[in-house]
């Protein structure tokens, strides 16, 4: 007897069952058990996989939804993942995928429970043959899943490379310590970190506007230029030259003004210069050459004299980086005059650069 098997559509489950039951009694028990087909997982199957993706669909034809499930499971099988139905899953899935059909568009939403991301995509089914739509939807879901897990994959790869590098350093240390002298050299990773932390020497040119004040009617402003060296990112050495002009000091016999030049040398320490803001503290020594001159004498003869002033002070500086090479800074200093100069009317001091000295500067620095 010859039996012809015709191709049965997926929806004709009743006809296929009747045909199988009619043929099975004629077959041997051993052959029937050895050729029993294994059906793919269905939404009613229990979910026992260690890692799985939950897939649910709405507004899709049952045949299309089943094909999407089968094709998607095929894509994930070689990566050790399975596809399960959310209704039968007893544990949280690695990701939850929802597919909704609207006209000729498949709306895919992915809720990634591993990276805590939500991504979505609208896949147009126009122009895709009916027998290829399931595979297109499955590929689109897999692409969303790969994109969501791409960052996690890169992070694990970097961590693995870092562990391998640290393992190499540990092995080198163990090999060099096998000499028996008890000496374990510093790891290369530590040396590299310290080398990167060391800041290069910085060279800077700047301009500033300054103010000087003493208790004997000396109120002066300065305009100067400076050059600084910042070695190791912490040191501070600076040389400046400025023109100085004092406001007139009044007396009953006339007025006195002072003008000249001032040069300073500063040494100190600073915080790291590569930060948006930094601070410096240091000591400053200054030498000024001032000319005192009388104006508008009423009861005396006006004259002029040249005097040299030597002072020292402690100061602090605050800086803010405006660009990669431009820095705005402000300074405040308190010191004393070691060698002073003054102008008198014969009895009283009209103007004197003596005693306590206060200074302030504001300027711009340009890194070379």
What does the model show?
The structure is a single chain. The chain is built from five helices and 16 strands. The protein starts with 12 loop residues before the first helix and ends with a strand. Residues 1-44 and 173-197 have low confidence and may be disordered. A hairpin with a 4-residue loop joins strand 12 and strand 13. Helix content is 24%, strand content 45%. Helix 3 (62-77) packs parallel to helix 4 (133-177).
Question: Any descriptors?
Answer:
single chain, 368 residues, alpha+beta, five-stranded mixed β-sheet, 5 helices, disordered N terminus
Tally the beta strands: 16
* Main sheet record: 8 strands, antiparallel, barrel
From the spread of the alpha carbons, the general shape counts as rod-shaped
Spatial arrangement of strands, main beta sheet: 6-7-8-10-11-12-13-16
Low-confidence stretches: 1-44, 173-197
Order of helices and strands: HHEHEEEEHHEEEEEEEEEEE
Structural class computed from helices and strand pairing: alpha+beta
Tally of helical runs: 5
Tell me the fraction of residues in β-strands, as a range: 35-45%
- Rg, Å, rounded: 43 Å
Mean pLDDT: 78
Bin the helical content.
10-25%
Q: How is the topology of this model organized?
A:
Layout (H helix, E strand, L loop, with lengths): L12 H11 L5 H6 L17 E7 L3 H16 L4 E3 L10 E8 L2 E8 L4 E8 L8 H45 L10 H10 L4 E13 L3 E13 L4 E12 L2 E3 L2 E17 L6 E19 L8 E18 L4 E14 L1 E4 L4 E5 L2 E12 L1
Parallel strand pairs: 1-2, 1-3
Antiparallel strand pairs: 3-4, 4-5, 6-7, 6-16, 7-8, 8-10, 9-10, 10-11, 11-12, 12-13, 13-16, 14-15
